[in-house]
Design brief:
Layout lengths: L1 H17 L5 H5 L7 H15 L10 H16 L1 H13 L7 H7 L4 H43 L9 E7 L15 E7 L2 E5 L5 E3 L14 H25 L10 H16 L5 H13 L4 E4 L2 E4 L5
Antiparallel strand pairs: 1-2, 2-3, 3-4, 5-6
Helix pairs in contact: 3-4
Amino acid sequence: MQEDHEIFDLVSALENAEGKGTTFYSWLDVPSTATTSEIAKAYRKLSMRIHPDKNPGVKGAHERFARLGVIAKILRNKESRKRYDFFYKNGVPRWRGTGYYYSRFRPGLGTVLVFLTMFTSALQYLVQKMNYKKDMARIELITSRAKRAAWGPKMIPTTGQRKVRVSLGEQVDEDGFAEGTKWIEMVVEGSDVYLPDEDGTLHPIDDSTATRPSLGNTWFIVLMKNLFARVTAKKATSEEGENEKPYDVDGSDSDSDDTSSAANSRGTRSGTATPQEDGTRSSSLQTRGLPVEKAGGKRRKVNKRR
């Protein structure tokens, strides 16, 4: 009840401020059988003594005065005083209900998420331990059956490899297993038991076969590892792309090609032939038997005088 929660808070606050074991009645200096008028008189007397105006600069004076008013109100009300008298005689319960603690210590979203993460991870770890125990028990059962089939009922170890068939069903008696169960082939060599695959490779069957419980295999840790790996790989790819320099298909530097193209373009637009074009033009004129002269840095044709 909300009234009970208010009484619990006042009891705790009063003991913290006035000393452990202080009750509503002892603070007012009246017996628990005091009448309403006696309680009112005690309240006026104490309120005048602890009033904040008469205690300037005293730490917590306003809180004490406000607390006194609430306590007096509870004791002067018949129903609320009855509830307090019940806890006064029987004691305030240590566990005050989930509603009480939730209303006063209401967790935020972050706290709830952290709690759920820790709870589910612990639960998953517990399941891992249970599965590990089951796997170890099954491995011990299968290996003991394989050794029994290889060594015989007296369990006398033999040398060399021996291939045996082992039942995965439940054991019925000392000499056989339940009918209709699945059988697998295994290899026993000394005290070691192996499971062969199709290509003949032998895989040991021992405690290393079962997956040990680990906090690193819980969902939250695995999620963080995967996120970190993705971010690292993405960053490495980005840095590798920035360090690459583009080249043409023929392996030449694109900047050099662009410079040559720009020079050829400027020469064409200005009407001046490039060195390569000058050489080609001179060769053509000399082939035709026409002399070539240079004037002002430019080549031109000169007609012979007849």
